[in-house]
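Quick illustration, no need to memorize.
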Amino acid sequence: MGLTIVRHPVLADRLTRLRDERTAPAAFRQALADAALVLAVHATQDLPTIALTARTPLGPFEGRRIADEGIVLVPVLRAGLGMVEAVHTLFPQASVHHVGVYRNEETRDPVPYYVRDPGDLKGRLVLILDPMLATGGSATFAAKLLAASGASDIRLLCVVAAPPGVEKLRREAPDVRIYTLALDERLNDDAFIVPGLGDAGDRQFGAPEPAPR
């Protein structure tokens, strides 16, 4: 159903650090970056490559390089900021398009506060970066925005997901492929993932996000 749970000893270690309430912001950011890097490697195993002839100091060799397919990274602000730099190291030529969305705590609906036209995304691989897939509102909003700009290959990289978020994305943006480290039990009454890892934005940056003006 387009959901891949990526398992690896390094990811299990980093997920434990991310869940642990004792992990300080700096260590949390590092663990999130490490997890994003490994997630991105798994999520892009089917990238096209091209043959390349080059030389080592000792002689020629036949290798391969990633074809320039115009990859686009879309961190969902603000929590997704902690993932973008690590993924960008894998794809340094990728463009970055930010989407700012916060959740209305009364209605649970996504409220956009920073949205720009991403341009023509036809034929481009788009990676949405967001540590949490809880209600699915932010991810679905971003996916629909990107699809409206022509993107047809959209993949969501998240650390933890909850069934309601997966179901919403499957229902409203069924072509999006989800890559996560864990599918957690449920959402609590405040729509936070249980057991989850708390508020990923607050745990990275140490302060609540100010309300948009």
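The radius of gyration is 18 Å.
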